[in-house]
Design goal:
This protein is of the alpha+beta class and 367 residues long. The protein is built from 15 helices and 8 strands. It is found in: Mitochondrion matrix.
């Protein structure tokens, strides 16, 4: 991987402080009038290059065998393209300038769709040849910036087309049950296609609870936890015929996966319980590392990025993910999601998105 032509510019911006924005500020400024759109476009044009410069600076400090992996190099090239495109964009003054800029942001977002997959594939290839390599801290910072940048870019795009029941990327009164039911249908279908059987998914608790949140984040986190529970349960309890080949059609022999919803003053709690055998304490700790997986089927299990990315997404807005595993029996996963209502303590007093950006500001020179 050759050095970028604007290396000094990247290094200079990487040392700058990124201006933070709370979710409350973002929601209050999400308006579709031309003045608001121009102002937000100007802010993004100045702030996105700083965020991407930091990640590029860290890419350039990675070991040779990492940056020369073809998948990792593709990610680097995407980040370079975004950095240069946004940095080189002329000053946004008129409505036409702003319209051109939002077209650029749309195009860059599309390019970044494949970043998570490319990173996961590249990291797996690197660790296959160099098992001692661990890049968890680098990946945490990379994906924190990715979450932040996507929220800012997607919210900017949606500002111009207000949607009923939404404020930018945030959906008001989102139903976790509806999200989980849609996911359970797809995960059950996929599990049956792979294994021939699938456990029933049971919903209980406060099924009418709602919260204001980013739908794509809820879908991602719930999908990762639910598919892990379904896969573990199926692999442990899948019935076999007397000859030991193939599967019987006895779904009652597979324990249910239980999904419980509760709503507190600050969080909505989603508990997903399975009887997939659990895991020893040492393995529980390893499960939060990037690239860790016990599954061979990528279609249902992914690349071992699911749990650490789920935790990053939850923690980004003050939530979290906890695991309680009983070796030999099963696992309970607890997903805590903050209410993202304007005026709530998590937004106005201690907005986690600001805290994370400030943490990133303090780690400019992190190794």
């Amino acid at each position: 991987m050759s050095l970028p032509r604007n290396l000094r510019h990247i290094q200079a911006l990487a040392k700058q402080q990124a201006n933070t924005v709370t979710l409350g500020q973002l929601l209050r400024t999400t308006r579709s009038d031309p003045t608001s759109l121009i102002r937000q476009g100007q802010w993004l044009r100045s702030q996105l290059p700083i965020r991407f410069a930091r990640r590029l600076d860290e890419f350039l400090q990675l070991p040779y065998v990492v940056v020369h992996n073809s998948n990792i190099k593709q990610v680097f090239d995407i980040y370079i393209d975004t950095f240069e495109s946004v940095s080189d964009f002329p000053t946004i003054i008129t409505e036409r300038d702003e319209a051109d800029f939002v077209s650029l942001i749309r195009a860059q977002l599309e390019k970044h769709q494949q970043v998570a997959r490319l990173v996961a594939e590249g990291y797996r290839e690197v660790r296959h040849n160099y098992p001692h390599f661990r890049l968890d801290s680098f990946l945490d910072r990379l994906f924190i910036t990715r979450i932040s940048a996507r929220i800012l870019m997607e919210n900017y795009i949606r500002m111009r087309t207000p949607q009923e029941g939404h404020i930018g990327v945030v959906q008001k009164e989102l139903s976790p049950l509806r999200v989980l039911q849609d996911l359970s249908t797809e995960i059950t279908r996929l599990t049956e296609a792979i294994y021939g059987v699938a456990p029933e998914i049971e919903f209980r608790g406060n099924l009418t609870c709602t919260l204001d949140y980013i739908p794509r984040h809820v879908q991602f986190m719930c999908q990762e936890l639910l598919k892990n529970a379904v896969r573990a349960t199926t692999e442990r309890h899948k019935p076999r015929n007397l000859a030991g080949f193939g599967f019987t059609s006895e779904p009652a022999s597979i324990p249910r996966v239980a999904v419980e919803l509760q709503k507190g003053d600050v969080h909505v709690i989603i508990k997903i319980s399975d009887q997939g055998g659990g895991m020893p304490k040492k393995i529980q700790e390893e499960a939060w590392q990037y690239g860790w997986t016990t599954a061979d089927n990528e279609e249902l299990a992914g690349y071992g990025f699911g749990l650490p990315l789920t935790r990053l997404h939850a923690q980004y807005f003050g939530g979290d993910v906890f695991m309680q595993a009983l070796p030999g029996h099963g696992t309970d996963m607890y997903l805590l999601l903050n209410h993202l209502k304007e005026g709530s303590p998590s937004i106005e007093e201690d907005d986690p998105s600001t805290a994370l950006t400030e943490t990133e500001n303090r780690s400019v020179n992190a190794p």
